[in-house]
């Protein structure tokens, strides 16, 4: 089964990285779900949650704002001016 390589990066550090089966993020055009095999894209993030379902089933939630999301070759990169994990 294919998986996504995901990195969530804030202005000063990496917030989370790993392999995932799904990523859901809020963009300025609305919420988007990303699964393995997603077409390449670049989107501007809206302030809100980024929800990652890790490959092992764990759920990871981060708050992100002021940045972008890119998808290419099953790699999802989220770069935000403000990003932090939600406990």
From TrEMBL:
It is found in: Cell membrane. It is an enzyme of class 3 (hydrolase). It holds the Pfam family ATP-synt_DE_N. InterPro entries: ATP_synth_F1_dsu/esu, ATP_synth_F1_dsu/esu_N, ATPsynth_dsu/esu_N. It comes from the Bacteria. Its main location: membrane. The keyword Ion transport applies. Signal peptide: none annotated. Residues 4-83 form the ATP synthase F1 complex delta/epsilon subunit N-terminal domain. The keyword Phosphoprotein does not apply. Keywords: ATP synthesis, CF(1), Hydrolase, Ion transport, Membrane, Transport. GO terms for molecular function: hydrolase activity; proton-transporting ATP synthase activity, rotational mechanism. Its EC number is 3.6.3.14. It is a peripheral membrane protein. GO terms for cellular component: plasma membrane; proton-transporting ATP synthase complex. F-type ATPases have 2 components, CF(1) - the catalytic core - and CF(0) - the membrane proton channel. CF(1) has five subunits: alpha(3), beta(3), gamma(1), delta(1), epsilon(1). CF(0) has three main subunits: a, b and c. Belongs to the ATPase epsilon chain family. This is F0F1 ATP synthase subunit epsilon. It comes from Mycetocola zhadangensis.
